[in-house]
């Protein structure tokens, strides 16, 4: 029961290889320090490596570009959509099932903290459609489902929120934790954040790969907090006092509009500012039971993230 993992060198991919063990086959551009079987190639060009992946029964497409900006977003949008479609075709050629790893942001973004999306919720395109990354993931989901149906490929979409925990070697997923550690938190917007532990997501995906039956969507929720509470919790586990001022949504939105016209030094990208005024809430109807998904306490995740960042990045 070999499971092919794309994005194997990434934050989630490395954890997934460890959990899958001997069942894992890693699709990589460059060799990894892992005992897992490795195939050299990219998700965009499966014809170059398909012959080496015979025996694969599940494809987990975890590769993706994440760039929260409108600048130079074309490559990201193209990769996120076209690589997903290419992997559906690869799954058909391998007679395998496919897991498309997406994001909670396709459905779980709201103006208020009291709203949550479940696996039946509609896309939040009215809100997130203005942000290239989330729009690319919505299109990847839509088009992959359509193609999979046409080709007879069994496909499920898995949506986790922001992933935290040790091992984010590229420093992309743990940016908000690093902001506190490095003193680069200018102010605190009125929005929220949803996150969970990368290790728990990896275990749920491995459990899914070994199941006989799938639903068409699984959510892997963790913890949803206001940004104020999140940054204060990071400060608590790190021993750092977070005393940055709250900034009203209208002010943050104004800064985002200004930043779209004139670069603002020391402030996040306008898309990041816009996102920081929203709330991210979602839940699951069946992942806890079917995937044995039991996310650990969020303070433990934050503590482990801080410890790893400090060890791997001395200035943090």
From TrEMBL:
It comes from the Bacteria. InterPro entries: Epimerase_deHydtase, NAD(P)-bd_dom_sf, NAD(P)-dependent_oxidoreduct. One of its GO terms (molecular function) is aldehyde dehydrogenase (NAD+) activity. Residues 4-211 form the NAD-dependent epimerase/dehydratase domain. One of its GO terms (cellular component) is cytoplasm. PANTHER family: NAD(P)-BINDING DOMAIN-CONTAINING PROTEIN-RELATED, PROTEIN YEEZ. This is NAD-dependent dehydratase. It comes from Myxococcus fulvus. The lineage of its organism: Bacteria, Pseudomonadati, Myxococcota, Myxococcia, Myxococcales.
């Amino acid at each position: 029961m070999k499971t092919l993992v794309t994005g194997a060198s990434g934050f989630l991919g490395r954890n997934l290889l460890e959990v899958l063990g001997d069942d894992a086959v890693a699709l990589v551009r460059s060799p990894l320090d892992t005992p897992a079987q490795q195939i050299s190639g990219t998700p965009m060009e499966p014809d170059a490596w398909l012959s080496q992946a015979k025996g694969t029964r599940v494809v987990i497409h975890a590769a993706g570009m994440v760039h929260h900006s409108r600048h130079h977003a074309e490559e990201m949008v193209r990769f996120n959509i076209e690589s997903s479609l290419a992997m559906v075709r690869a799954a058909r050629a391998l007679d395998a099932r496919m897991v498309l790893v997406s994001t909670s942001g396709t459905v779980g973004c709201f103006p208020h903290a009291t709203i949550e999306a479940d696996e039946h919720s509609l896309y939040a395109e009215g809100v997130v459609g203005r942000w290239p990354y989330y729009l690319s993931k919505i299109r990847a989901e839509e088009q992959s489902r359509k193609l999979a149906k046409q080709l007879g490929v069994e496909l499920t979409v898995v949506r986790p929120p922001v992933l935290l925990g040790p091992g984010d070697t590229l420093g992309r997923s743990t940016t908000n934790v690093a902001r506190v550690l490095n003193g680069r938190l200018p102010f605190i917007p009125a929005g929220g954040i949803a996150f969970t532990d990368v290790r728990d997501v990896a275990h749920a995906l491995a459990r899914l790969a070994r199941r006989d039956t799938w639903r068409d969507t699984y959510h892997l929720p963790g913890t949803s907090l206001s940004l104020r509470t999140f940054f204060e919790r990071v400060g608590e586990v790190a021993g750092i006092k977070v005393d940055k001022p709250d900034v009203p949504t209208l002010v943050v939105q104004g800064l985002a509009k200004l930043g779209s016209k004139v670069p603002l030094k020391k402030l996040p990208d306008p898309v990041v500012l816009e996102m920081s005024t929203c709330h991210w809430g979602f839940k699951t109807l069946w992942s806890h039971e079917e995937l044995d998904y039991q996310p650990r306490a969020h303070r433990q995740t934050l503590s482990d993230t801080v410890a790893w960042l400090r060890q791997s990045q001395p200035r943090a």
